[in-house]
Amino acid sequence: MPHPDRGSGVDQPRGWGYAVLPFIEQQVLHDMGSGRTDAEIAAANKARGTTPLPFWNCPSRREARLYAINTAGHFVYTDPYLCDTLSESVQTDYAINGGDNAIGWGPTPEGADNGTATWPSAASATGLVFVHQTYSIATIRNGTSNAYLFGEKSLLPEHYATGKNTATISSIR
Q1: pTM of the full structure
Q2: Separation between Cα atoms, residue 76 and residue 72, nearest integer Å
Q3: Distance between CA atoms of residues 77 and 115, nearest Å
Q4: What distance in Å separates the CA atoms of residue 109 and residue 131, rounded to the nearest whole number?
Q5: What phi, psi does 38 have (nearest 5°)?
Q6: What DSSP letter does each residue of the chain carry, written as one string?
């Protein structure tokens, strides 16, 4: 789950969905829990993870509502760091281009800050986004008109409403 006091840079422990909230007119949702205690941040993250937004869902696929969390192959909003337990959460039909070796997130901020954990290595990164990394436009070797930043996930229709995420993003490399 995001930590609202860690910005949107390399020190933010969680992903692109949180980082884009201010750019889709969701600044209030993005800032929930900022300047608060860990318990208050956990409550804010639970509220954030259970607030459906139409933006996250393809209108021809499924509606924006809460879906059961099925931890087999599903990592959105199931991370226990700074969040109360959830049995259901929002789902997204979109994925960021993490390439062949996509990693959802790194260690908790405390683990990274105090040296008890390390961030994953980006040595084998093939996508446009990798945890705890920044890139410039110049690093996109094929040009930005030939690269997807994010796109719709491949998801089996029988799992649209089950919470089981068997998605792949190989079609958006």
Answers
A1: 0.77
A2: 11
A3: 25
A4: 12
A5: -60, -40
A6: ---TTS-SSTT--S-HHHHHGGGGT-HHHHHTTTT--HHHHHHHHHHHHT---GGGS-TTT--SS-EE---TT--TT---TT----SEE---SEEE--GGG-----S-HHHHHHTSS-PPP-TT--SS--TT----GGG-TT-GGG--SEEEPB--GGGTTT-----B-GGG-
From the centroid of its chain, how far is CA 135?
18
Which residue is listed with tokens 């390399």?
10
CB 6 within 8 Å of CB 95: no
Tens digits of residue pLDDT in 126-151: 888 777 777 788 878 777 887 788 88
> How is residue 145 written in tokens?
């008109």
Task: Please check whether residue 155 is in contact with residue 165, taking contact to mean a CB–CB distance below 8 angstroms.
Answer: yes
| 10's tokens | 């390399």
Note the residue count of the chain.
Answer: 173
HSE, CB side, 13 Å, CA atoms: give it for residue 156: 8
